[in-house]
Amino acid sequence: MMSDLSVNPEDILADGVDYTVIKGVPVRKGTVAAFIANIQIIEDPDSSDLARQNAWETMKNLAPTLVATGLTDHVHFKNPNVERMLQEIISSKK
């Protein structure tokens, strides 16, 4: 995948493809966007406790995928609980 060219989204997922496998982990398109949308739910003061709980569980399920993509090597999340969860997953992989 490395070359003198940049990487475009279609280089990772071709048109019509819904997922790929990175480091042995299936990565579905929309995973990063869903993770961020769930952060917005847990940070929204108008979200119900149930919505926050569901968002948190979904984020825990998605987190290993974010780690596999390498996102956590380059991005730190402002929300300390989210960052802690991701760091725990990274530590458990070592």
Explain what the structure shows.
The chain is mainly α and about 90 residues long. It has one domain (about 10-94). It is built from 4 helices and 2 strands, in the order αββααα. The protein has a two-stranded antiparallel ribbon. A hairpin with a 2-residue loop joins strand 1 (about 20) and strand 2 (about 25-30). The longest helix has 21 residues, at about 50-70.
Q: What is the overall shape?
A: globular
Strand content: 5-15%
Helix content: 55-70%
- Low-pLDDT segments: none
Q: How far is the first residue's CA from the last residue's CA?
A: 25 Å
The pLDDT mean sits at 93
Strand order of the largest sheet: 1-2
Rg over CA atoms, rounded to whole Å, is 15 Å
Structural class: mainly alpha
Sheet having the most strands: 2 strands, antiparallel
- The total number of structural domains is 1
Order of helices and strands: HEEHHH
Count the beta strands.
Answer: 2
Helices, by number, come to 4
